[in-house]
Amino acid sequence: MNQRIGIEAMALCVPARYLEMEDLAQARGVDPQKYAIGLGAKQMALTDPGEDTVALAATAARRLFDRHRIDPERIGLLICGTETGVDHSKPVASYVQGLLELPHDMRTYDVQHACYGGTAGLMTAIDWIASGSNAGRAAVVIAADIARYGLRTPGEPTQGAGAVAMLVSNDPRLLEIDRPAMTGMFSDDVHDFWRPHGRREAVVDGHYSVDCYLEALDGAYRGWRKKALERGLVRWSGGLASDGLAHVAYHVPFCKMAQKAHAKLRAADLAEVGRPLDPEAEKMEAVRGARSFEAQVAPTLVLPSRIGNAYTASLYIGLLGLFSANDRALPGRRIGLFSYGSGCASEFFSGVAGPDAASPELKAEIDRLLDSRERVSIAEYEHWMNTDPVAPPTLEPRPGTYRFAGIDAHRRLYLRG
Ligand code: CAA
Predict the structure, then answer these.
(1) Quick check: CB of 160 below 6 Å from ligand 1?
(2) Consecutive H or E run containing 143
(3) Phi and psi for 384 in degrees, rounded to 5?
(4) Torsional sign, CA 386, 388, 392, 393
(5) Beta strand residue intervals within 219-307, DSSP E
(6) pLDDT lower than 70: segments of the chain
(7) 191 lines ligand 1 (CB under 6 A)
(8) pLDDT at 115
């Protein structure tokens, strides 16, 4: 039986503080246009020790359960995708289970493959439901991370943090995933980005990582397109196959990356139908490409441009931004998604927006979360970047949020506001 499976609901957690990119550019003696235009970044989320990955994940999950009045007994699987957990052994998922007082009769674990971990969790949840192993229950998948490269590194303007919690079920009111086996995959053993044990900051071969991302996209998209054409989800019919997608949400390490990705995706289509040969036709394609970026991709970048990279959560923050735009034309339309994790693993998949994909309540909630953040100065930013991650907390948790509160013997303690 072909069941409907996908994302029923989503919730976001962003850190309470942010840095204006203009302030960072000024402090680093860089032309602000490099960050604004060259990277597409306006603001960057900043965590303090109280906002570790567990606190971000648990806060997003709490919001999901509370806003949608989810009966915890409905949940049989809790997966957290993260590459910035707090322990080499104890998963973030088990902290979340404890903090939210979820039932014991469920599977809980973390998934790690750089920024791809959230998607690995989502795909596992979908397969778990499709197989019938769920016995009627739903899954919660959380993508949560803190992206850190360190002060005065080329990666510094591409930091950020956040968490997205997703309820995955047979009632895909936000996004019904096209399945079965409707995804395109590309993985390889590459050394583009890594974080050796004991290091807080990631190390990256920046320009090479961009190339790895684009090569993975090309492979994964072609794999998805082949299946999507066979099933009639998209067609060539005078245009490009990707024109059949109302929107494409990409993994967003920085917003300009999505622009490069979209150009690559169109190039993969043009390679199939024939590239423009004369300069006039090439100019026309440049115009069409820019228009297509504005229509298909720009709406997914509103939140990432204000949050920065959140590794596993980045793709889903972009998707949530699309849903929170309250676009009445969105329900019923097909969306493409590209997930990339360095190292590397990637997947291109698609889904159809459900009835809740345009909701004024979601928009109000996201606006409130972003607007209630505190802007920090460069001095405060550098202070928090240099602070010991287990330093005593300085802030009380806001209502509905969790904060790390210190270590008692070996136990990490959290407070709920
Ligand atoms: N006005 C407008 N644009 C300007 C400018 C100015 N004054 N000055 C420079 N620019 C443009 C450049 O032309 C360039 O544009 P293009 O990419 O279109 O050529 C852009 O700004 C960036 O400039 P540089 O390439 O000179 O920047 P950089 O060398 O300082 O580093 C970076 C850029 C490699 C992305 C670096 O920020 C980095 O290493 N970031 C972390 C790695 C990363 O995010 N990789 C992405 C793929 S890996 C992945 O996706 C997984 C993940 O999450 C990490």
Answers:
(1) no
(2) strand 138-147
(3) -65, -35
(4) positive
(5) 247-250
(6) 1, 276
(7) no
(8) 98
pLDDT in the model for residue 105:
97
What pLDDT sits at residue 9? 97
In tens, the pLDDT along 194-223 reads 999 999 999 999 999 999 999 999 999 999
pLDDT, position 205: 96
Q: Which residue puts its alpha carbon closest to atom 8 of ligand 1?
A: 34
Beta bridge partners of 337: 249, 349
Residue 31, ligand 1, Cβ within 6 A: yes
Question: Which residues have a catalytic role annotated?
Answer: 83, 115, 251
Q: Is 33 exposed, middle or buried (0-12, 13-18, 19+ CB in 10 A)?
A: exposed
Please give the angle made by the CA atoms of 288, 293 and 299, to the nearest 5 degrees: 145
Q: What is the pTM of this model?
A: 0.97
Per-residue pLDDT, 379: 98
Q: How far is the CA of 213 from the centre of ligand 1 (A)?
A: 13
Q: What is the pLDDT of residue 1?
A: 58
Q: Assign 3-class secondary structure to 315-379.
A: HHHHHHHHHCCCCCCCCCCEEEEEEEECCCEEEEEEEEECHHHCCHHHHHHHHHHHHCCEECCHH
The helix (run of H) or strand (run of E) holding residue 164 is strand 160-169
Handedness of CA 262, 268, 273, 277 (dihedral sign): positive
| C-alpha Rg value of the chain to the nearest Å | 21
Residue 181 carries which DSSP code?
A: S
Minimum-distance ligand 1 atom for the alpha carbon of 192: 48
Per the listing, tokens 């949940």 go with 75
Residue nearest to atom 34 of ligand 1 (CA): 206
Using most ligand atoms within 8 A of CB, pick from 192, 204, 212 the residue to mutate for ligand 1.
Answer: 204
Burial class (CB in 10 A: 0-12, 13-18, 19+), 365: middle
- How much of the chain is helix, strand and coil, in % rounded to 5? 40, 25, 35
Dihedral sign, CA of 200, 165, 92, 250? negative
